[in-house]
């Protein structure tokens, strides 16, 4: 058996994005076919390695087994929170003064003042086109385990409250979960009925558009930001188009890839939780993801009809003649990057 190892050949078969090495070029082609590497992946600011999530990027920089060269440079001029690398320690220090997602607690307390309702249809370009939503649930049913929306808050891009109200559930509450909700029976006695809350929010989100005409980009319908929005919308009995939902719990770059470290996460409050704080935290995450500067591509999604044949099996011979750089150039993302909302 010939056990010789051609290191030079393996180097030629190295993925330009994640740096994995393959014995055969056909294996690299297959890797590129299923990896969906793109400019939208979190990327190390030092060695330019692509990672599937910010958590895996954090592990690469400061995890249990980081790349030593990147770790040393990052420790000197990298931001521990957003993982960006700067030209100097002074630039990093200036950046870190504003690189945070918390400090909302004191402001959030003002949302306890009762109903706020600034939901208006229309408003043109000056109206809020991106809004965050968060709910707090009390318990229903014989054992109090059924989630019932009892408080809802919505904010705009500038963290202003545009809607806040206690919600009267359609069935009796059997567990107010006061330790985390801070909700007492008297708060819900004269609260806005669920049906009214549902209609106000649904009409505001659609903003005069019919549900079936709403599309991912353009139009009047508003973009909805939140964390675990499927559950919130289900409890509110609201249907909304997935194309307009930006859920931080489902966004691939923010999802966990292992149990070793924490990625870009906002501070979870202990004790009573205020939905305003949740709105602000998720909105800041969304705005940070949206503000990323990525290379502009005419057709950035792998699912686009013009990209579906990029790595087609019938092109195998042609692909094997390409360099790893050329293969990365035609590779596209399998998720909608929020930078495309800009």
Automatic annotation (TrEMBL):
Q: Which GO terms describe its molecular function?
A: 3'-5' exonuclease activity; nucleic acid binding; zinc ion binding
Q: Which domain of life is it from?
A: Eukaryota
Example of a GO biological process term: rRNA processing
Q: Does the keyword Zinc-finger apply?
A: yes
The record, for SUPFAM superfamilies, names: Ribonuclease H-like
CDD domains documented for this protein: REX4_like
Question: Could you tell me which Gene3D superfamilies the record lists for this protein?
Answer: Ribonuclease H-like superfamily/Ribonuclease H
Please state the protein's primary subcellular location: nucleus
Keyword entries, A-Z? Exonuclease, Hydrolase, Metal-binding, Nuclease, Nucleus, Zinc, Zinc-finger
Gene Ontology terms, cellular component aspect?
nucleus
Domain C2H2-type, which positions?
A: 13-42
**Is Zinc-finger found in the keyword set?**
yes
Any idea where this protein resides?
Nucleus
The record ties this protein, via InterPro entries, to:
REX4_DEDDh_dom, REXO1/3/4-like, Ribonucl_H, RNaseH-like_sf, RNaseH_sf, Znf_C2H2_type
Please name the SMART domains in this protein's record: EXOIII
Q: Which family does it belong to?
A: Belongs to the REXO4 family.
Name of the protein this chain belongs to = RNA exonuclease 4
């Amino acid at each position: 058996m010939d056990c010789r190892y051609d290191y030079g050949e393996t180097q030629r078969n190295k993925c330009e994005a994640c740096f994995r090495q393959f014995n055969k070029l056909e294996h690299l082609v297959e890797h590129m076919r299923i990896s969906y590497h793109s400019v939208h992946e979190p990327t190390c600011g030092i060695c330019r390695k692509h990672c599937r999530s910010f958590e895996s990027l954090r592990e690469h920089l400061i995890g249990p087994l980081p790349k030593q060269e990147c770790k040393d440079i990052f420790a000197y001029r990298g931001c521990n929170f957003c993982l960006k690398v700067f030209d100097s320690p002074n630039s990093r220090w200036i950046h870190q003064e504003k690189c945070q997602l918390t400090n909302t607690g004191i402001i959030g307390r003002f949302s306890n003042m009762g109903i706020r309702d600034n939901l208006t249809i229309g408003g043109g370009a000056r109206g809020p086109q991106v809004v965050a939503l968060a709910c707090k649930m009390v318990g229903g049913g014989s054992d109090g385990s059924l989630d019932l929306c009892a408080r809802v808050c919505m904010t705009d891009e500038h963290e202003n409250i545009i809607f806040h109200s206690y919600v009267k559930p359609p069935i009796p509450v059997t567990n107010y979960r006061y330790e985390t909700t801070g909700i007492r029976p008297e708060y819900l006695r004269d609260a806005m009925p669920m049906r009214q809350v549902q209609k106000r929010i649904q009409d505001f989100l659609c903003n005069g558009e019919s549900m079936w005409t709403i599309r991912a980009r353009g139009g009047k319908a508003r973009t909805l930001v939140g964390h675990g929005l499927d559950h919130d919308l289900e409890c509110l009995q609201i249907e909304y188009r997935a194309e307009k939902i930006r859920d931080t719990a489902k966004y691939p770059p923010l999802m966990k890839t292992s149990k070793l470290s924490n990625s870009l996460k906002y501070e979870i409050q202990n004790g009573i939780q205020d939905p305003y704080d949740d709105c602000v935290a998720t909105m800041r995450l969304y705005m940070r993801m949206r503000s990323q500067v990525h290379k502009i591509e005419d057709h950035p999604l792998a699912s686009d009809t013009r990209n579906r044949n990029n790595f087609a099996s019938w092109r195998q011979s042609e692909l094997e003649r390409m360099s790893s750089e050329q293969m990365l150039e035609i590779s596209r993302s399998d998720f909608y990057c929020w930078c495309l909302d800009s």
